[in-house]
């Protein structure tokens, strides 16, 4: 098969099932595009760096399982209601979203429409390898360092709300309970969110405000919307990795693992690595005791993306739910270097 420039920009559908093929092609037509259909992964050149949506039929999933796939925000598995269990079982190993047809056709249409067009923002996840690592503090600080080009998304169901760290808990605007049933395409989301210091934030609910964990469909819709509007979307994933957070994890172009350098902290972080190691790097919080940052990175088998100072005042403020206020110069410079490394 000769892949012309037009075909190279089209969504790719991998299936031999005529019913799935017809359903996906109909969704592509509704999106104003076409999909190139193949039945063998070997027919797709440069699969690992594919820069357009890849839709994998459940009938061909075993044929592609040993391949390295493109970023998960471009990849989805499709099947019918009868295939739901198999789709969910393959979703995590492949790092792909799931679309159950016909109910998920709206979301599929938005994917095929090219919502992640050229120039769309990058999604960066932040996760603490252990309690008190300072992941939420780092996530807020990275968003603030982006000079107005970033949005902040809270997926830590046990964190109490990132709006507290920004001092925006009294600001009017949407929180996750307002978007609990969202899916597909959400337009101009940022203008409805509370903002502090130029950073729009979608915060988790507190117990009295409504349900905690947003649905995977809502997370996908929100991240795609914010990535269209911002150069960066910083996501605080939370250590519990709820269903919504796992969806967020799949959409991340980069995953920052934050850890201290003492033996117990590194050991705790090692247990997390298996779930997040793809497209991940480590940021080490410096302390008087503990291994060097490079030694920690080598132990974890991750690239070192930076060091941050052990600013106990900032971490303590985070634990108390206090706004960060003015960030120290040393902390701000360290966060700026981390951001430059991750987005390079």
Automatic annotation (TrEMBL):
One of its GO terms (biological process) is negative regulation of cell division. Residues 125-324 form the CobQ/CobB/MinD/ParA nucleotide binding domain. Transmembrane segments: none annotated. Pfam families: CbiA (PF01656), Rv3660c_N (PF26563). Residues 14-117 form the Rv3660c-like CheY-like N-terminal domain. One of its GO terms (cellular component) is cytoplasmic side of plasma membrane. GO terms for molecular function: ATP binding; ATP hydrolysis activity. This is Secretion/DNA translocation related CpaE-like protein. It comes from Propioniferax innocua.
């Amino acid at each position: 098969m000769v892949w012309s420039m037009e075909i190279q920009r089209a969504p790719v559908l991998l299936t031999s099932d005529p019913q799935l093929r017809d359903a996906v092609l109909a969704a592509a037509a509704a999106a104003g595009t076409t999909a190139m259909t193949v039945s063998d992964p070997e027919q797709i050149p440069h699969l690992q760096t594919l820069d357009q949506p890849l839709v994998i039929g459940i009938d061909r999933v075993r044929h592609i399982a040993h391949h390295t796939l493109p970023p998960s925000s471009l990849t989805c598995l499709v099947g019918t209601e009868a295939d739901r269990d198999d789709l969910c079982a393959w979703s995590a190993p492949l790092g792909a979203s799931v679309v159950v047809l016909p109910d998920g056709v709206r979301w599929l249409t938005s994917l095929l429409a090219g919502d992640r067009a050229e120039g769309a923002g990058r999604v960066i996840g932040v996760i603490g390898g252990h309690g008190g690592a300072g992941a939420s503090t780092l996530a807020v600080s990275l968003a603030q360092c982006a000079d107005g080009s970033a949005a902040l998304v809270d997926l830590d169901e046990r964190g109490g709300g990132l709006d507290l760290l920004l001092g925006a808990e009294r600001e009017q605007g949407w929180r996750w309970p307002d978007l609990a049933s969202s899916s597909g395409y959400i337009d101009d989301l940022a203008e409805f969110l509370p903002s502090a210091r130029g950073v729009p934030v979608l915060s988790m609910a507190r117990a009295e405000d409504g349900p905690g964990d947003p649905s995977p469909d809502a997370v996908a819709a929100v991240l795609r919307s914010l990535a269209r509007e911002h150069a960066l979307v910083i996501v605080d994933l939370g250590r519990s990795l709820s269903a919504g957070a796992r969806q967020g994890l799949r959409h991340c172009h980069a995953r920052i693992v934050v850890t201290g350098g003492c033996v117990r902290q590194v050991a705790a972080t090692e247990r997390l690595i298996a779930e997040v190691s793809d497209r991940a790097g480590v940021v080490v919080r410096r302390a008087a005791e503990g291994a060097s940052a490079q030694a920690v990175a080598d132990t974890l088998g991750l690239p070192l993306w930076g060091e941050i100072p052990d600013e106990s005042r900032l971490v303590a403020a985070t634990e108390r739910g206090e706004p960060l206020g003015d960030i120290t110069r040393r902390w701000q410079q360290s966060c700026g270097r981390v951001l430059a490394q991750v987005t390079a």
